Amino acid sequence: MQAKKRYLIxxxxxxxxxxxxxxxxxxxGPAATGxxxxxxxxxPEQPWPHFSxxxxxxxxxxxxDTEEYNVHISPRQKRDVNSSVYKGxxxxxxxxFDFSLCQRNGFKVYxxxxxxxxxxxxxxxxxxxxxxxSRFYTSDPGQACLFVLSLDTLDRDQLSPQYVxxxxxxxxxxxxxxxxxxxxxxxxxxxTWPDYTEDLGFDIGQAMLAKASISTENFxxxxxxSIPLFSKEHPRTGGDRGxxxxxxxxxxxxxxxxxxxxxxxxxxxxxxxxxxxxVHNAEDVVLLTTCKxxxxxxxxxxxxxxxxxxxxxxxxxxEMLHNSxxxxxxxxxxxxxxxxLEALQAACVPVMLxxxxxxxxxxxxxxNTAAVIGDERLLLQIPSTVRSIHQDxxxxxxxxxxxxxxAYFSSMxxxxxxxxxxxxxxxxxxxxxxxxxxxxxxxxxxxxxxxxSYLGDFPFFYAKLGIKPNxxxxxxxxxxxxxxxxxxxxxxxLVSVAKSQYCAQIIVLWNCDKPLPAKHRWPATSxxxxxxxxxxxxxxxxxxxxxxxxxxxxxxxxxxxWDNNKERWGYxxxxxxxxxxxxxxxxxxxxxxxxxxxxxxxNSLKSMVDQLANCEDILINFLVSAVTKLPPIKVTQKKxxxxxxxxxxxxxxxxxxxxxxxxxxxxxxxxxSWFGGMPLVHxxxxxxxxxxxxxxxxxxxxxxxxxxx
Length: 709
What we know:
Shape: globular
Domain Glycosyl transferase: 536-692
Mean pLDDT: 82
Membrane topology: Single-pass type II membrane protein
Oligomer: single chain
GO cellular component, one term: endoplasmic reticulum membrane
GO biological process, one term: heparan sulfate proteoglycan biosynthetic process
Largest sheet: 5 strands, parallel
Keywords: Disulfide bond, Endoplasmic reticulum, Glycoprotein, Glycosyltransferase, Membrane, Signal-anchor, Transferase, Transmembrane, Transmembrane helix
């Protein structure tokens, strides 16, 4: 009997070893992956995690072996989902993007024509309209570097009424699809109940994704773009300003940490929100959840639901948001949440609890300067962590939330343009923006690297770099009247400007219907005068500008106001105690704004200015204030500003034209509409030289000529 047992044991052991060797228990062959030790054996690359490294998230793939997960998805479905999501997983710009399409015409974007009968959501229509109204747009696919579908891909949840059916067939039938190469697909929602995978329901091929709630596992670095989740009510242009009006010190508010939102009783995304009650203290940490949502919530309610619902109704969400230092942003069913943008706007520092979420625009934005990146597994440590942050750091975090909100997130237009600018930087690497450009005021959208790759060439980086602007200026004089006599104002102005110790050269833009006068008719000056034919006191002002190089500094000022009766913006030249514009007929500003005017503003606005031969000064004021969020600076004071015209002039003064003022009113509203709001800022500051108009000897005054202006 004992011999038989030993025989059976030996037989089973031998069979086990044979099976083990047959199914790969031996030394791995060449196809095995992992790191090879000095002994030649391969081991899986599974190092211990470092807390300084990006945290790996708990996605549905981590739960794929759990009983709950497998109840909802069959092995075949699981294979299909993995195949769909990971197809093109290794795509990068070098392997899945044709740079040659961008070499001839630069970075141009083509939007497919909308097909008859295809439904399209308002949000996706706003995205397409933004692209079509941008400087990147081209209607010629032959000139395009990037292609965007007119088929609505924003909502790929099969239970959503916005879901577009048969998208796979429709996309594959597009003649320019080319397996998605050089295509960009926008998406906010993917997957559906109960697993909410990142599958879009069609093969994206080699297309790039601009996707919300994208995981670090599926995100393809320097290829995809992570965008924020935004609601259908998110403004198309402009958007509201952030709520941090003042640099409040100390920066603490009524609450230290808040959250108010849904609690999921089962399924993905339920763990963190179900555990929030452990941290809630109803004093300075107020974390409220409700399970009162959905049709069948009462069927699944637990013992805490009634208590949670009652506590939930006691607090107003907006009041909490605007009176808290930190705002918790836990994951929902998907990784992203509306709470993220709400916290940014409210200057409530986001505390992220969504392991594995690739944060929006992470390629260019340093989120460590504006948010606290938490870990879902360490929820109980969150209160002590935020309490340990010094108030100086809190103030810096809150200020950065406001910059990021206004620079990149306050409207769909900014989200879309930021996405395109990121891709353009990849395509045109030699002129891409630096990290400082993206993360410092005024941000990447207003800092065009085509102008210069050196930060010192931009007026808003002087203070940060500790440098001073150029000590010389170029005067640009717009001439609209012929030269009849040597006493004309334009000639006097030429002589006066040329006397400035800071003047390097004078450029005269000749926009008169009379031919250029002979060379001897121009006054002799110590600086060169360059006259350019158009197609269709200074020292003090310059010294002031050197202290404020990012702003417009000048003499005659104008203002804007809101007309309640007409429900539109108004323009006024009346003498008041404040102003919001400085007329460029006598002003100093950085030359970068000319480059920005030419390359950033749409052709529709520039064409309007050219056709009217009016409003260019208003438009440049709009642009500079939109960039700086600051008013211009007025120097000296004079209650009347008129363009003196010679009686012999063949061209009547445009200031005397009754349509001139009406045109400027129209311009104000047209410009405000494009900017998505009113960027002009009122000011009551006026800078005068010492002893200006004081009753003292003129010999004691440095700027003696300025009082004659």
